[in-house]
Amino acid sequence: MTKKRRKNTAKQYQLPPHIKRAHQEVAEAKAWKPRPPLPQVRVILVGFGLFLLCVGMALFFLLPSHSLVQDLRSRGVSAAATVVGVDSKPKYVKVRLVSSPKAGTEVKLWDYAGMLPETQTGASMIVTYDPEDPSRILAQSWVEDPPANLPAYGTSALAVICLGLTTAVIWRRLWILRTFGPEEPPASSTGGKKPSAKSTGDTKS
User: Fold this and answer.
1) Among 135, 127, 87, 128, which residue's Cα sits nearest to residue 108?
2) DSSP codes, 74-124
3) Which helix or strand (DSSP H or E) is residue 30 part of?
């Protein structure tokens, strides 16, 4: 009878809650490992802001030029013109129409994404202009076959790069938060106290 009681008592015995808690804290302390530097939220915000800025610049270079070319293709009037002025500061090319109802009118060529054709004073060219607004005018060759919009392409590439880097930073932050535990070790590993600057190796001068 005595042996049976001892066996039953051994089976029914359970560790006190504070001892279980202590064992759990010790296990957590052993499993804890230092967390790598966590990417800051402001870095993500700056990256996303740069992405939006690049997208805005790409649209600024692309949409007005594309709209002008489409309008001139649909209702533009072609005419011979003579270059009467070229300057680089500020950059412009001024022409005088010589073979259209607007003959004698002097206008500055509209830039295409900040670009103007290479020419010189006295040169002749064929232009296409909007009859409702002659100031909207391009070289006919640019209307038929627009040049590569390098500013729009460049800013679009920068936008993709900024978005990719920002996404990588976000994924790294999420991976660190999911993979590693709390930034500070459990209390049991430091005797119930937060680690001091000396124990962590951080010193302030």
Assistant:
1) 135
2) HH-EEEEEEEEEEEETTEEEEEEE-SSTTTT-EEEPPPBTTB-----TT-E
3) helix 17-31
Decide if 149 contacts 112 (C-beta within 8 A).
Answer: yes
Q: For the chain, how many residues are written?
A: 205
- Verdict on whether the full-model pTM lies above 0.85: no
**Residue located via tokens 């060759």:** 141
Write the secondary structure of 40-56 as one string of H (helix), E (strand) and C (coil): CHHHHHHHHHHHHHHHH
The conformation of residue 204, written as its DSSP 8-state character, comes to -
pLDDT in tens, 82-140: 999 998 888 899 999 998 788 888 999 998 988 899 889 999 999 999 988 888 999 99
Q: Between the CA of residue 89 and those of 86, 107, 119, what are the distances in Å? A: 10, 17, 15
